[in-house]
């Protein structure tokens, strides 16, 4: 069987490699045209030597290193660019292959909704129960702008155009002339990419990030959402004979772009206002395009009595309504343009699309009329697509979350209580804080004096709250409190919202993100729900955010994963006891060290009862492009999320056995000890980390709008989780994603628990997912490359730590292979394994060059700074390695 799988993988890659080879050849021709044959020959020579080096040829490795170190300054940038762009084109080919007509069954995602409906309706779940669950699903995907998306938006658009060309080429009916035209277009696009600067010259602003998020919706999700719902409806109808409601929206979208102010001084109330206006503007513009098309389609005269009465018996009643909507949308766009330009125009709200009902009600009237008059086929065309887009995106496009650190809210009240002569809020204990907050929440008189002049930081928090008060609830999502730990953290925000005039009950969501906060999460929520005033405010709904990034950085992935699991279990129990519906918000990243990995598996590995038809999940950085950047990929991703949440709700995983829990407790305890023993207690760790990775240089790369550190003068503890993981992925050690896990699993084996671990891996989705994720990062880790970074960049007196880390890595790999009874990592996922192998010969030269450039820049002095060529080439190697590793942050 294993041989057959291997043969299938080879056949599968024969199809994929033709596209990789074709795009690579066009890239080579582009380089030859502009840099000559000798440069291209050198690139090819280094690529071949890298492949030979991979096979253990030491002579090839030495020859490659000699060529790399001898590159003249003027060749550094084009060389880094060549390998960088080949990796991007390989990524593109692979991404396209999963949606290609020639996609192999080992690669293609089988239709997850079709599979799930088949399983559920095969006697396991009552049909009515399944349909009821489907109709009430509430999946909220929250787009965030964490700085891991290396590629510029202009390049992303060109990559999407290349995918369109690859899709066109699959048409067997193309003439020779048509094939030549497609090939010409591919050569033009790759030439455009080659001559475009890959590195942003300036760091993006929060508004830039928000516009990038909107572009993903406009170019992909706007088309994918109605396509997905039509496919879902067809499958449900085929199996049950029923249709889904026209306003069904199992998946909706929110955003942190322009609302996440935690540690980002550039996200102000003014910025958030502009982003909210731009979100509405984008929605109005896209709906206008749809309505213009619909005016052309709905030319029929026959209508029901309601529509005829509404249009005063117009001869074209559908167009009568649509022309009115068209004008309102145009006026709405003009109004929002003025606001974005900084004006505050007076307006008659009745002339604009001001509320969702202004658009929804007339469109539903048209839909009903068409159905009443026997034209359901027409109604279920573009008109139904528009109604479903409206149900998903609303007129605000994305619901904007607000996020702020708990300490900033406390500082507002501390400054206010000092001004009022009441003492210092920050010096009160939790009981005193709660008593004060509840008293003021119930008090009808204002707490904030009209003549009070707060400090700039305090004024900014209050301005944000006033902004929330001015906007409708549907424009906003949740108010997320980072580093929350106590009930007063939630009550403080509620008081600030009350005092600034917010009348709609905004969801205020504590984010528990350190190990201790996760362990105390249930206690905090229990205390909150025991408060009568708060219970009344929640109206039976409680949202809690679980932090993956900072908990993993605090305790290591294995201990953090177990703490997240237990916190969810306890929160489910607490909310069930209180009769409150819990929504868990998972703050996952793209990398394994930040809770990343396949979303379908991750959802199915959650504790039973923790999903229950509702979930919020962050989608960040480059993962937004990988999952939603192309309409067909986006349809797959929407289907995967829907099927996973349905399955987790209706067919939840089993309760873990007590012996599994006991074993996991021991593993968590030992893993956090091993992790912190290195990261916190090893005195040489920080200097080794700074020397062996490009952590310092990453801070200079203009990626996201947010600073890399919470505090400029802080150490590892103040470094954000993203650059922490990004840095270790660059030197290929991948340390945050595995440190502590192997040691704990080995200790379990030494206790004679290997059989127990294998039972857990086979029968417990939570544990099997953790092992699968470990396999992936172990496969991506390259200890020999990490050793090379160490040799070139790290002082000799610190080398002992590198040796220790590589021994720990080797230990983890061996124990996982023993646990899975495999000879190779990722043996059960050959596509993923081969995908890693495909990239390595192209990433390796970038890594070797990066070490050379890091050494040069670190030797620079004021008198002899590194040349511009060296600095730009270094940034390109970082971008290239990130492209090759894919889930970097």
UniProtKB/TrEMBL annotation:
Classification via PANTHER family: PHOSPHOENOLPYRUVATE CARBOXYLASE (PTHR30523)
Cofactor: Mg(2+)
Chemical reaction(s) catalysed: oxaloacetate + phosphate = phosphoenolpyruvate + hydrogencarbonate
Family: Belongs to the PEPCase type 1 family.
Function recorded in the entry: Forms oxaloacetate, a four-carbon dicarboxylic acid source for the tricarboxylic acid cycle.
Enzyme class: lyase
Keyword annotations of the record: Carbon dioxide fixation, Lyase, Magnesium
UniProt name for this protein: Phosphoenolpyruvate carboxylase
List of catalytic residues: 146, 553
Catalytic activity, EC: 4.1.1.31
Subunit structure: Homotetramer.
One Pfam family in the UniProt entry: PEPcase
Protein's organism: Shewanella decolorationis S12
